[in-house]
Specification:
The structure holds two protein chains of two kinds.
Chain A: H1 11-59, E1 61-64, E2 67-70, H2 75-78, E3 88-94, E4 97-101, E5 117-123, E6 126-138, E7 143-153, H3 155-203, H4 221-269, H5 273-306, E8 312-315, H6 316-333, E9 337-342, E10 347-350, H7 352-369, E11 375-381, E12 387-391, H8 424-434, E13 438-443, E14 449-454
Parallel strand pairs in A: 9-11
Antiparallel strand pairs in A: 1-2, 3-4, 3-7, 5-6, 6-7, 8-10, 11-12, 12-14, 13-14
Helix pairs in contact in A: 1-3, 4-5, 5-8, 6-7, 7-8
Chain B: H1 2-16, E1 23-27, E2 34-40, H2 44-55, E3 61-67, H3 70-79, E4 86-89, H4 92-100, E5 104-105, E6 117-118, E7 122-124, E8 128-135, H5 148-157, H6 159-162, E9 166-169, H7 175-187, H8 190-200, E10 204-206, H9 209-218, E11 223-228, H10 229-236, E12 242-245, E13 253-254, E14 257-261, H11 267-280, H12 315-329
Parallel strand pairs in B: 2-3, 2-4, 9-10, 9-11
Antiparallel strand pairs in B: 1-3, 4-14, 5-14, 6-7, 7-14, 8-11, 8-12, 8-13
Helix pairs in contact in B: 5-8, 8-12
The chains are: A alpha+beta, B alpha/beta.
Chain lengths: 455, 331
């Protein structure tokens, strides 16, 4: 299992948090802006009514018989009727002197004739909005200035504002909910290509080192490019390793074969028994080296190929038959008979080279440990699952070691006298595992080792 | 010395406060420790059933019921708002102005239509039209006037019959009279023509509806204009000579209102009294005072409770109106 990388936060969580926080901030700002805006409009509404009231009163001002009369219309005050029954104060002044109304309204020196002046004040413990204006009346003797103040409480206004605040609050809450959901979706959409790439990497089999071709967002291009270039380099390295193994196998085996054939030829010519013994020992050593090198290279190859399995339809019976044929000469040297029992073709998905290698190593072992003039049996069955069993009539596996034998370089205690590297069963096991199968080691009832491949 | 002074002051103030009332009655047990003082323009007889019922399960409370004219009530109350717990008046404009000026105490959740209350402080409990009340003897052929125009015609046709036998409110002293007159003037020019005709026939001026009705019953008066219809109807039940006409050209209808004084101490009982009164006065079937409730007269609008009522209370407008009224009526 690959090492689990260290985790530092989550892109998705970070993105979601930033977006949701942003929309929350936006909602709050929206709330205050809209409410402020609504408050101004509401205030402007009250102001315009107050101004209309002031101007209707001031327009009624006349000088009659040298006296100011202000017979203002009933509407001047009825227009000030509000939902919350706001209180109304007013004052009519002539040159600053109170003619009628409430003296509690203070005079202001900011009176204008063209439009009303507005201010907000506390009068008699309540907040009042005051509109005021003045007008110059030209009498026969002298001119005089009439000023009118109309003040109104803001109960209705604050009621309206409260209502507006509630509505705007609800609106902002809906807005926030909506944007929060949108943020979540956006974060999800942003992270999705990443997880899609990850799952596509995971789905790939070990040997699939093709570059990723699916379109990705531009931000992910550097990642995918470096991933592709990494896989490209890995692919090259793997190919080079396989080449190296093939080369090494060739380079080592060929000189050894040459040495052996020379030794054999020499043996024919040499008659002195001590020289012959020496040559025989040399041949044995060469055989051992050759076999060990072969197994080592097999094992190395299997290690690479297992990650890089070249699966195809193979016939187990066919492989086993070919193997029996090719190893027949070695069997004959010991007068061994290879018995083949097959149920006809048994097809499996597998790497033929690896399977052949595995069977050859086991069969090789069987031929090695089988006593002279006995039988080595190969059985291939198709059901319940594809199985290849290779058994001999030799001493069998030592019972106490039977589980450990598949470990690398482990040889049985009773194998001291034969050549071998201890890799044969390991290779068999690795191949079976690479194919999703297993290897079982057992001893026959009447002795003899039995190796079973379940594929 | 200080003690002596304060005794003199107390004595003096009690003397100065010795107000002469049109009527003054105390309800409830004399030894009751709590007291409600009700300042009212409404004849005591209408409120007796309410007060008696209210006091039934309040043995510790007595109610002092003080009756005066609407203008005087306004004046008295403004001088000593803490002395009175409740103010009842038929002069809607004066009542609204008192509340507008901040004298009333808010009483929440009173079950009345929006048009019958103002600021949850001023509450209407009756709806009463202004009426033309006649003595049938003055109209021997039974041809009673139905509108103001009819009345003008009748007066013009028989000036001898009506000379010095016409009555109306003196708007200078009666708050309710002033309210009726200003609302009439606002509605139609007919009002001024009627005033001129009445002025030409030497109209007598009264402070109160009760006295005008008395005059009608005695035969001193043949026609009274802008009398409280509810009072007249009550008397007409026993005095067949009285005819109560609600003018059909434009009706002027006022609402009798009540509010609790914010300055008074007995606020809780005052609130309870308002709740009780409004509850007992709600529909025509069981209006406890016998005065028509705010729901009566169908869709007929009364003078609306809104700040426009302040208009004619304005000193300048009042001066202008009274001058016009005097010119027409007091010749």
């Amino acid at each position: 299992m690959a090492e689990r990388p260290q985790i530092s936060g989550s892109l998705f969580k970070r993105l979601t948090a930033i977006l949701i926080f942003g929309s929350m901030l936006l909602s709050i700002v929206l709330f205050f802006v809209v409410r402020e805006f609504a408050a101004r409009i509401a205030q402007a509404g009250q102001d315009s009514i107050l101004e209309a009231s002031v101007s209707s009163i001031i327009d009624a001002a006349v000088i009659r018989d040298g006296r100011v009369e202000v017979d203002f219309p009933y509407a001047s005050f009825s227009m000030l009727d509000t939902d919350q029954n706001d209180r109304v104060f007013y004052a009519i002044r002539q040159d600053g002197q109170l003619l009628s109304g409430y003296k509690v309204i203070p005079q202001t020196d900011r009176l204008r004739t063209d439009s009303a002046f507005f201010e907000t004040r506390i009068l008699a413990q309540s907040k009042f909005r005051i509109a005021s204006a003045q007008r110059v009346l030209i009498g026969s003797q002298r001119s005089t200035t009439v000023s009118v103040y109309v003040a109104q409480t803001q109960d209705s206004l604050s009621q309206t504002l409260k209502q507006i605040s509630l509505n705007v609050g609800a609106l902002c809450l809906v807005f926030f909910t909506f944007t929060a959901i949108l943020s979540y979706i956006a974060a999800l959409a942003t992270v999705r290509p990443l997880s899609r790439l990850a799952s596509s990497v995971q789905r790939r089999s070990g040997e699939d080192l093709r570059p990723f071709k699916q379109p990705v967002p531009s931000e992910m291009v550097p990642l995918v490019s470096s991933l592709n270039s990494l896989m490209n380099r890995l692919d090259q390295t793997l190919t080079r390793s396989e080449d190296f193994i093939a080369e090494a196998a060739h380079r080592v085996r060929t000189p050894l074969a040459t040495v052996r054939s020379y030794a054999e030829t020499t043996l024919q010519r040499v008659t002195k028994s001590e020289n012959r013994n020496a040559l025989k020992a040399m041949m044995r050593a060469v055989d051992e080296s050759s076999r060990a090198a072969g197994q080592l290279l097999d094992h190395a190859m299997i290690t690479f190929r297992a990650d890089h399995l070249d699966k195809q339809q193979v016939d187990l019976s066919g492989i086993v038959e070919d193997l029996a044929t090719s190893l027949a000469p070695i069997a004959e040297m010991k007068d061994l008979k290879i018995v083949l029992r097959t149920d006809g073709p048994v097809h499996v998905e597998g790497d033929p080279i690896l399977l052949q290698n595995a069977f050859r190593n086991v069969l090789d072992n069987a031929l090695k440990y089988a006593p002279f003039e006995t039988e080595v049996t190969i059985q291939v069955t198709d059901s319940p699952r594809p199985t290849v069993t290779i058994s001999d009539l030799g001493a069998g596996f030592p019972n106490d070691e039977i589980q450990a034998l598949t470990k690398r370089f482990r040889r049985g205690k009773n194998a001291k006298n034969s050549i071998g590297s201890g890799l044969g069963l390991t290779i068999a096991q690795d191949v079976a595992l690479a194919h999703g199968g297993s290897v079982a080691l057992t001893n026959g009832k009447s002795g003899g080792a039995c190796v079973t491949f379940y594929l | 010395m200080r003690y002596f002074l304060s005794v003199i002051l107390a004595f003096c103030s009690s003397l100065c406060a010795a107000q002469v009332w049109e009527d003054q009655r105390i309800f409830g047990a004399a030894e009751a420790t709590q007291q409600l003082r009700i300042l009212s323009s409404t004849d005591t007889s209408f409120l007796v059933p309410v007060i008696d019922a209210f006091l039934e399960d309040r043995p510790n409370l007595k109610i002092e019921y003080l009756v005066h004219g609407t203008s005087t009530i306004d004046l008295l109350y403004r001088q000593n708002p803490g002395d009175f717990d409740l103010v009842i008046s038929s002069a809607m404009d004066l009542q609204l102005k008192l509340v507008n000026d901040g004298f009333g105490k808010q009483v929440d959740d009173i079950d009345l239509p929006k048009s019958a209350k103002w600021r949850d402080t001023l509450f209407a409990f009756t709806k009463e039209p202004a009426a033309i009340v006649l003595n049938r003897a003055a109209f021997p052929n039974g041809d009673l006037p139905k509108t103001r125009q009819d009345l003008i015609t009748a007066l013009r046709n028989q000036p001898d019959v009506f000379k010095d036998k016409i009555a109306t409110y003196d708007v200078r002293t009666s708050g309710l009279g002033y309210l009726f007159a200003t609302q009439d003037a606002r509605s139609s020019e007919t009002f001024w023509r009627l005033m001129e005709v009445m002025g030409g026939l030497g109209t007598r001026l009264y402070c109160c509806s009760g006295q005008m009705i008395d005059g009608l019953v005695l035969g001193d008066i043949a026609v009274a204009y802008n009398v409280l219809g509810s009072y007249a109807e009550a008397r007409a039940k026993t005095e067949p000579a009285l005819a109560v006409i609600l003018p059909s050209d434009f009706p002027t209808t006022m609402m009798r209102t009540i509010f609790a004084s914010d300055a008074a101490q007995t606020n809780l009982e005052a609130e309870a009294f308002i709740r009780f009164l409004i509850e007992q006065q709600r529909d025509d079937g069981r209006n406890i005072t016998g005065l028509p409730s705010v729901m009566s007269f169908g869709t007929q609008q009364s003078i609306p409770l809104n700040p426009a009522l302040l208009s004619y209370l304005d000193a300048l407008k009042r001066r202008t109106f009274i001058e016009a009224w005097e010119n027409a009526l007091v010749q």
